[in-house]
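User: Quick sanity check before I run a bigger batch. Here is a single chain. Can you write out its predicted 3D structure?
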Amino acid sequence: MVFRMRPATAYAQVSATAKPLRLPRDFYDRPTGMVARALLGKCLVHETAGGRVAGMVVETEAYVGPHDLACHASKGRTRRTEVMFGRPGHLYVYLIYGMYHCLNIVTEREGHPSAVLIRALQPVERRGQHDFTADARQLWPNGPGKLCRFLEIDRTHNGFDLTSGRIWLEDRGVKVAARQVVRTPRIGIEYAGEWKRKLLRYYVKENQWISKPRLSSARAPKPSDGRS
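Assistant: Done. Predicted structure follows.
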């Protein structure tokens, strides 16, 4: 059985004639904040050995480069961060707390280490019988580690090229209006000095699948490339 769900809020307007299109490399070869915003409404797909798993991106965070004290690249080029210095459109997957995987997408030009963290998905496809009611929140892909479990992604997928292969992002015709996008500071980066206040977290307003509720400092976004 495949789990399919219509968008939970009125923000999603899907063209019935829209044919899913894999996102090309130049989609990711842009300022990181712009990519983080543009990813809302796109579908992240993993063609696993057991079938297809997919979810619509509803929450992201931008990590804009080595000057961003919340970005892993601020510590320099290491074995862990090597993929961030490569071509845009590759996966950067790492482990936190020894048990949770986090999925990031490398952005901008080669040599400039930046990435977008995917924080939450709205389920679209999943093989088997899955309960996504309020009583089964542990199954919801509404957090970085939980969505990796949902998509069956771990560190073995670090470095995967999203423009080819069995993991990709695609455009299914969903349009997220500017008025439905909320920006807040990123989560869990109290150590990052002035960067902890930068509005580099993006999510779909009133979507039930986001990882955290609206923060007091949330506001509608102004045009931004994510660098300020």
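The chain has three helices and nine strands.

User: Great, the batch can go ahead then.
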